[in-house]
Amino acid sequence: MRILVQKYGGTSVAGLDRMKQVEARVKKGLAEGFKVVVVLSAMSGETNRLLGLARQWSANPDLSECDALVTTGEQVSVTLFAMLLKDAGIKCRSVMGFQIPILTNNNYGRARILEIDNAKLLDMLNEFDVLVVAGFQGVSCHGRLTTLGRGGSDTTGVALAAALSADVCEIYTDVKGVYTTDPNMCSTARKLDRISYDEMLEFSSMGAKVLQIRSVEFAKKYNVPVRVRSTFCDDPGTLVTQEDELMEDVLVSGIAYDKDQCRITVFNVMDCPGVAAAIFSPISDAGILVDMIVQNTSRDGRTDMTFTVSRTNLEKTLEILSRDNKDIGAVEVQHDLNVCKVSVIGVGMRNHSGVASMMFTCLRNENINILMISTSEIKITCLIEEKYLELAVRALHDAFGLDRAGGDRVC
Ligand code: ADP
Ligand code: ASP
Ligand code: MG
After folding, report:
1. Any alpha helices (H) in 324-384, and if so which ranges?
2. What distance in angstroms lies between residue 255's CA and the mean position of ligand 3's atoms?
3. pLDDT of 246
4. SS3 91
5. Which of 12, 228, 269, 369 is spaced 20 to 30 A from 280 at the CA atom?
């Protein structure tokens, strides 16, 4: 049995006309001899609308109820789409996460997939030509509905492709593929034909929401070829795949940005063993990801600690810090919401120096102040003021010649 997994995002299913375009793509897959597993997101805006309702109803919405609420967005998409296919005479059925089941842990809002029963899926595929699966959702060992984090339908798609050893996982969205930077922010962004799993991981973790990071982790772990393409044209899109020698020739493959950031500074903490642990352990115990961290040089046995968290986690982080204030000897905590991250990414950086200084020089030329810096083997990230974001992305894109194939990117 040859299996094709196709995932369609919110804009691709937002209304009858668009779903008709999805129907045409599914029919094409069938005509090529595949059984098709179609993973759908909620219609665009629906998940936000449902989360807004939860906040209207409760000051502090219960997370498990929130997950049960937002899964209805995907349920609407898959049932309506299955009706369309049935009217067209296609043997299909809608499938919710709990019916497979896609078993997850009970970390509501950001649950991780633990297991997918492929025997049951294969049985269903023997009976039906198309399965229309609700993305983004699973079920915990306690039988409660869970969701996989924002953008989680990508992960459902790739995880199902891995579980079914599908030929490929196609991710259909509203842009033609993965670009050198967000094409909606930079008009000279260029579509990449291929990108390695590692680079895509950096793109996603640095904020490029075209693929959810966990979907790329799955793809890399199980070696699933992923093709990102547009629902609305026939461009072949971008293949996310294993790294090869040609890719290493490329010094910088793109620029990513993340607006969902805030900077927190804890002033005047004691500079002694255990202080970083005292600050960050309770934050991490609360499931909050801390990204960039800088500790200033010490004066009179005291220092300042600055770090970033996502804006959604700001309140909780401040609450934890005020609770633990006495243990760390801190006198003041400040936060700043007007910041964002911009990152330069490329596997070629492993073997070449000079990218960081080029990035810093480019930002200086635009008179953009760097607030914090962090690096990995294949990326350099700067925290800057949010008002400079578009300017920084465009200037860096230009400085690294990313609008030209090859361009200055090849050493
Ligand atoms: P979907 O609803 O189909 O899942 P998303 O909105 O989650 O779509 O992701 C697609 C969006 O990702 C694009 O509209 C684009 O603005 C954004 N994006 C950010 N960085 C990139 C990039 N490097 N390449 C392509 N798209 C990007
Ligand atoms: N509907 C969910 C969201 O908006 C999942 C997805 O679209 O991938 O985050
Ligand atoms: Mg998405």
Report:
1. 325-328, 355-365
2. 18
3. 66
4. coil
5. 369
Strand partners, 267: 332
380: three-class secondary structure by DSSP: strand
Q: Which atom of ligand 2 is nearest to the CA of 44?
A: 4
Can you give the pTM of this predicted structure? 0.92
What tokens does 347 get? 């596997």
For the chain, list residues with pLDDT below 70.
Answer: 246-249, 326, 405-411
302 CB near ligand 2 (under 6 Å): no
Structure confidence at residue 247 (pLDDT): 64
Query: Count of alpha carbons within 13 Å of 405, Cβ hemisphere only?
Result: 4
CA distances from 104 to 97, 131, 148, 337 (A): 10, 21, 9, 33
**Nearest by Cα to 280 from 291, 268, 296, 270:** 291
Helix, strand, coil share (%) of the chain residues, nearest 5 = 40, 25, 35
Q: Which residues are annotated as a binding site?
A: 7-10, 47, 74, 173-174, 179, 209-210
Q: What angle do CA 158, 160, 164 make, to 5 degrees?
A: 120
Q: What is the C-alpha separation between 52 and 383, in angstroms, rounded?
A: 29
> Could you give all domains of the chain from N- to C-terminal order, each with its CATH number?
3-174 (3.40.1160.10), 246-411 (3.30.2130.10)
Question: Cis ω on the peptide bond leading into residue 273 (within 30° of 0)?
Answer: no
Return the CA Rg of the chain. 23
Q: At which residue do the structure tokens 């970390």 appear?
A: 107
Residues in the chain: 411
Q: Which residue has the tokens 């309702």?
A: 53
What token pair was written down for 197? 């799993």
Q: What is the pLDDT of residues 273-331, one digit of tens each?
A: 888 999 999 999 988 989 899 988 888 888 999 999 999 899 999 999 988 776 777 77
Ligand 2 contact, 155 CB (< 6 A): no
Residue nearest to atom 9 of ligand 2 (CA): 150
DSSP 8-state code for residue 297: P
Instruction: Evaluate: CB of 8 within 6 angstroms of ligand 1.
Output: no
